[in-house]
Amino acid sequence: MQARAGTPDDPLYEQLAAYAGRPAATAATGKDPVNAPMIRHWCEAMGDTSPAYRGPDAVAPPTMLQAWTMRGLTGEPESGDATDARSTAYDELLRLLDGAGYTSVVATDCEQEYLRPLRPGDLITFDAVIESVSPRKTTKLGTGYFVTTRMDVRADGELAGTHRFRILKYRPTHRAKDLRPRPVINRDNAGFWAGVAEHRLLIQRCVDCATLRFPWLPGCNACAGQEWDTVAASGEGTVFSHVVMHHPSFPAFDPSGEGGPYAVALIELSEGVRIVGNVVGVPYDKVRVGLPVRLEFLRTDPELELPVFRASEGG
């Protein structure tokens, strides 16, 4: 049963709810105009070969909407940037939650709406608002509050799209530190997780043009077709790229249970699509680009099974 604002069950919620509608950023500017190099890098990373994103009449992939608002690794605004209220209302809200013991955070989902294409040369400005704070919720990770922000992105002053981003600020259960985070399953990817439950790695295939795509998406990147079926991956692949995670220590991601370091790899399947996953069977410092791997399924705890990729020392 949810607690109501201002009741003895949850006096904190009344304070949190007061932040709904307050600005998180005002008249902020993107670091760079929309530009062809960033579009090219994005498409190469995502494996998106649509001709709409190349040539003199190119547009930016709609899913890049948030990319044009990012401020780099430092997160600091450019010198002379317009007012940024994030450091006040939004950070105040997070500090209030931290002080009440809701110190952990996980991103849960995002929603985007596209109103007009972005083209090279467009100048990006954006406003953000704390759209809502949920009543207290109990999840498998722990008890906490969902905080939703909405960003309105403008190109040369014209509204181009909206981006909603939702996080859960929570107090971990005693077991959460020993478990991997739960995947977010929605209507777009439920079929993938149903396949995992059957020990099948399913790849979407466009009915109109037969293009394979992964991760799962509601539409085809190549022809924009909306109809799709699936093919099961053979399980063969190679390491396309990888990173080694040294910090923070997270025992649930480390096969040894000691918290790392551990490798996270981008696997190129023999079908041509790529998936992020753990490489097992070799030490983290033996993972390399081109290493052959084979799909298997790992039960990480009684409620979660995941696709992983096994390599051999001599691979």
**Helix fraction bin:** 10-25%
- Secondary structure category: mainly beta
Shape estimate: globular
Sheet bearing the most strands, described? 6 strands, antiparallel
State the order of secondary-structure elements, H for helix, E for strand: HEHHEEEEEHEEEEEEEE
What is the CA–CA distance across the termini? 53 Å
For the residues shown, what is the average pLDDT? 87
How many strands in all? 14
Q: Stretches where pLDDT falls below 50 for ≥5 residues?
A: 1-6
Notes on the structure:
Strands 1, 2, 3, 4, 5 and 6 form a six-stranded antiparallel sheet that branches. The N and C termini lie far apart (53 Å). The protein is mainly beta and 315 residues long. It has helices at residues 11-17, 36-46, 86-99, 190-197, and strands spanning 23-29, 104-114, 124-133, 137-138, 142-155, 158-172, 202-206, 212-213, 228-232, 236-245, 262-269, 274-280, 292-301, 304-310.
Question: What would you say about this model in short?
Answer:
The protein is mainly beta and 315 residues long.
Highlighted features:
single chain, 315 residues, mainly beta, 6-stranded antiparallel sheet, 5-stranded mixed barrel, disordered N terminus
Describe the SSE topology.
Blueprint: H1 11-17, E1 23-29, H2 36-46, H3 86-99, E2 104-114, E3 124-133, E4 137-138, E5 142-155, E6 158-172, H4 190-197, E7 202-206, E8 212-213, E9 228-232, E10 236-245, E11 262-269, E12 274-280, E13 292-301, E14 304-310
